[in-house]
Amino acid sequence: MTIGVGLAYADGAERVVPKGTRHGPFNLLRGTAMANKIYSDAASALEGLLFDGMTICAGGFGLCGIPERLIDAIEASGVKGLTCVSNNAGIDGVGLGKLLRTRQVAKMISSYVGENKEFERQYLAGELEVEFCPQGTLAERCRAGGAGIPGFYTKTGVGTVVAEGKETKEFDGQTYVLERGIVADISIIKGWKADEAGNLIFRKTARNFNAPMATASKITVAEVEEIVPVGSLDPDAIHVPGIFVKRLISGSPYEKKIEFRTVRQRQAA
User: Fold this and answer.
1) What is the pLDDT at residue 28?
2) Span 153-172, mean pLDDT?
3) What is the CA 207 to chain-centroid distance, rounded?
């Protein structure tokens, strides 16, 4: 009896590779196969990855660059007790606000949560644990986790509630607070374009927290607006190399939501 793992190959076939065998993307020109990262939908891309009590890094800034399809699949899965690391918690009923509405989130690690009434209600009622983190510090905690750096010192937050219970240290007469790097169980991110190998490009503001969070987990699942053949993207334009992206879906079409639409009143003729 052969004990191994099933791999999907570029030719569509599935083969069993003996357990312990090294495998990965190989040169197709030599006749060997490359593991397929592309999944048909968000639910299949997350299959086998979700469990109660896990930590999820979620890219996005407000409603810009949020992994909408993956959040919907997490909501549908019913997984609960989540710790979500995100710049914000979306708004009511949109983005991570959907997971708050269904009470699937136990803790938020965020820097800004001012647009979500349900977040406010749960926090004030003691139903939601919150770890507030300065925005730049949060970005660096994710970047550090992805770079294998367990912690770093920063002046941001010294002398405030942010530093309570944390180690401090003097450097050149200045006080710094120790912040820990973040490594989540999975990262869910949203890109603009990707090639079939998972190399990602973000568009303008949607780059935000997606890039550092793509590296700050054990496995990264990405959704993009368009998937193109390998070789279609300028190598110098890649924001996240495909080695960090393990699973990939196309989530188009997307509705570009706006948090608050503010317009001036039309003047009378």
Assistant:
1) 36
2) 96
3) 11
Percent with pLDDT over 70 in the chain: 87
Query: Could you give the 3-state DSSP secondary structure of residue 256?
Result: coil
Q: In what order do the strands lie in the sheet with 174-180?
A: 151-154, 174-180, 168-171
CA distances in angstroms from 5 to 20, 25, 46, 48, 178, listed in the order given: 9, 15, 18, 14, 41
Q: Residue 242: what pLDDT?
A: 96
Could you tell me the residue range of the domain that residue 192 belongs to? 45-148+182-246
State phi, psi for 263 to the nearest 5 degrees.
Answer: -130, 155
Look at the pTM and tell me if it is higher than 0.70: yes
The model's pLDDT over 196-218, given as tens digits with 9 standing for 90+, comes to: 999 999 999 889 999 999 999 99
13 domain residue, yes or no: no
Alpha-carbon distances, residue 157 vs 65, 178, 187 (angstroms): 27, 10, 26
Q: Is residue 156 assigned to a domain? A: no
Domain count across the chain: 1
- Asked whether residue 55 is assigned to any structural domain, the reply reads yes
Q: What is the CA radius of gyration of the chain?
A: 21
CA dist 74 and 69 (Å) reads 9
> Which CATH number is 108's domain given?
3.40.1080.10
**Environment class of residue 65 by beta-carbon count within 10 Å: exposed (0-12), middle (13-18) or buried (19+)?**
buried
DSSP state of 161: G
Pair type for strands 55-58 and 174-180: unpaired
Residue 63 lies in a domain: yes
